[in-house]
Amino acid sequence: MTQPLEIRKKQYKKLVDEIKPRPPLVRNTVGAFIFGGLIALIGQFLLNFFQGQGLSVNDAGAATSSTLVFLAALFTGLGIYDEIAKYGGAGTIVPINGFANSMVSPAMEYRTEGFVLGVGARLFTIAGPVLVFGILSAWLVALLYHFFR
Amino acid sequence: MVALKKIGAQTRWFQNPPVILACATIVGEKEGMGPLGHTFDKIITDSHYHEKSWEKAEQRMLQEAMQMAVERAGLSLKDIDFMLAGDLLNQIISANYTARNLEVPFIGLYGACATLYESMALGAMLIDGGFAEYVLIGACSHYATAERQYRFPVEQGVQRPLYAQWTVTGAAGMVLARQGPGPVITHATIGKVVDLGQQDPMNMGAAMAPAAADTIMYHFVDTGRTTDYYDLVVTGDLGTYGKELAQRILINNGYDITSCFADCGVLIYAPEQDAHAGGSGCACSAVVTCGYLLQEIQKGHYRHVLGIGTGALLSPCSSLQGENIPGIAHAVVIEAG
Amino acid sequence: MIFLKAFVIGGLFCVVAQLLIDLTTHKVTPAHILVGYVVGGVVLSAFGLYQPLIDWAGAGATVPITGFGHLLAQGAIQGVEQKGILGAFSGGVAAVATGISAAVIFGYLAAIFFKPKG
């Protein structure tokens, strides 16, 4: 108790790291692999289906993303998505439907704060940064391509 | 002129120990299904409690718990000299709106999850200081309102780490009186804000444990009591790992309370309830103290209890700015009446 | 065969993200993962590495959010080819317009029609 604060902080950090439970790495990565893989598998089925309907490769891809996004919005609304995510971990974040979940979940909860500043604004809590950095980096890449091709 | 009722550095003793006249608790479904479910007065199964928003539900729980406590004390709201309450939401809205509806002179408090114990200590001081006959205190929290304010929306797919705690949905009210039947508050040790550099908003136990240990140690030093004086030393919401951390710090400093140490956050949920390290939130220490603990004291199972409310002073804003999460802890001695 | 490849690659993208979450500090949140993956997709695509992966693994590479970055980058590059510098501004978003609109529309509808359970 009488030691300088910096030393106490260091000692305490060591103690916290010692006692803190490690994440169940094997279970988590297996979960992420299976759920992420399954979603990609569903995506592949959809892709094949839409291409079979005569859509071009690009259009079939867009239709597949839209379908996955729709399913994610539905599952989030029904309150199932977070239950799946408990087991799927990153397997439910990385696929395009994770993006949709990150839009629906805050928008739904902030419905009580109105349509404009509640739903409208909160749809982009996480989607906003994703679009900002995605658009910015794609623009940069295209600019470099323009000048240095 | 020295303060007459001050002993040591941080502790106050009460000349005429204020009485805990009555208590009332309301909890959510998950808490109701936990091992302490039978000790609560009312269990609500709808997380919205028939209100439009979770915030309104939380406020309603607090108001009902406080009204129930006043009724049980055989009083009416007019008898109450002060209402002391707080919660976790920005600008302590649950407490503010409850005070608006109850129309009682109100002192709003924020002590994070230590709010109930902060209220008990201050309420006891108001009574023993001769400023009040009856003081109504209370605290509340709600899983959904706290999660969306401090962390992530509840429907977002986020894996909770094993050391994460579950914010208790519930509210408790308590009436303190100058005299009457019931357990009494004999001492209060007001804690300092302790910051040992924790930054993880998911690991509240680690943020609070140093403050809890600090307050417990000062309590023993100030009162000159030894650890075996108490049947039970119970912290608010350190959770499994925070409790372990506090225990280690105390042992390193020569205080071994292992045999009588408990934590409300560990008590409130069963391991299979998927709450990970246990409960947290204002309601955690509030409903366990006002429910289980006081019932055990009244049954005579415990005679000398040292209760420590623990709070993590987390703000989403400062957390994003890279600030640490400091902790606070206030201790109150409850003795069987 | 394409199904197995999609499963494995789609799964592996998620395993990497899971390790990033579990093995780094608490500061890596799902938002950081999503942002990092989109930018990562843009960069991989710029170096011409992402299209071969899609050719090999199909939805295993298009369904992860990195595929969204790839579409953005390829759209912007094609925009430059068609319209010069102006295309760098218009091409990216045009290529992902369907996905963004779907997310906004379905997201809005879900937020309106469902009440969160808590």
Describe the structure.
The complex is a heterotrimer of chains A (149), B (337) and C (118). Chain A has 149 residues and is mostly helical. Chain A has one domain (5-148). In chain A, 80% of the residues lie in helices and 0% in strands. In chain A, helix 2 (25-52) packs across helix 3 (57-77) and helix 5 (96-109) packs antiparallel against helix 6 (115-122). The model of chain A has no long low-confidence stretch (mean pLDDT 95). In chain B, strands 1-2-10-15-14-11-12 form a 7-stranded mixed beta sheet, with helices on both faces. In chain B, strand 1 (6-7) and strand 2 (11-13) form a beta hairpin. Chain C is 83% helix and 0% strand. The longest helix of chain C is centred in the N-terminal third of the chain and has 22 residues, at 2-23. At the A-C interface, helix 2, helix 3, helix 5 and helix 7 of A face helix 1, helix 2, helix 4, helix 5 and helix 6 of C.
Please specify the SSE layout and strand pairing:
The complex is a heterotrimer of chains A (149), B (337) and C (118).
Chain A (H helix, E strand, L loop, with lengths): L4 H15 L5 H28 L4 H21 L3 H8 L7 H14 L5 H8 L1 H25 L1
Chain B lengths: L5 E2 L3 E3 L5 E9 L1 H4 L9 E2 L10 H19 L9 E6 L5 H10 L3 E3 L6 H14 L5 E8 L1 H8 L15 E2 L2 E8 L6 E6 L14 H20 L8 E4 L3 H14 L8 E3 H5 L10 E2 L1 H18 L4 E9 L3 H5 L6 E9 L2
Parallel strand pairs in B: 3-4, 5-6, 5-7, 8-13, 11-12, 11-14
Antiparallel strand pairs in B: 1-2, 2-10, 3-9, 7-9, 10-15, 14-15
Chain C lengths: L1 H22 L6 H17 L3 H8 L1 H4 L2 H19 L1 H11 L1 H17 L5
Helix pairs in contact in C: 2-5, 5-6
Concise summary:
The complex is a heterotrimer of chains A (149), B (337) and C (118). Chain B is an alpha/beta fold and 337 residues long.
Task: List the defining traits of the structure above.
heterotrimer; B: 337 residues; alpha/beta; Peroxisomal Thiolase, Chain A, domain 1; seven-stranded mixed beta sheet; six-stranded mixed beta sheet; 10 helices; 35% helix; C: 118 residues; mainly alpha; 7 helices; 83% helix; globular
Number of strands of chain B: 15
- Multimerization status: heterotrimer
Whole-angstrom Rg of chain B? 18 Å
- What is the element string of chain A, with H for helices and E for strands? HHHHHHH
When the domains of chain A are counted, the total is: 1
What can be said about the biggest beta sheet of chain A?
Answer: none
The CATH architecture name of the largest domain in chain B reads 3-Layer(aba) Sandwich
> Given the C-alpha coordinates, what overall shape of chain B results?
globular
User: What is the C-alpha radius of gyration of chain A, as a whole number of Å?
Assistant: 21 Å
What structural category do the secondary elements of chain A indicate? Answer: mainly alpha
Strand content of chain B: 15-25%
Mean pLDDT of chain A: 95
Catalogue the unreliable spans of chain A.
none
- Overall pLDDT confidence of chain B: 97
CATH class of the largest domain in chain B: Alpha Beta
Distance between the termini of chain A: 64 Å
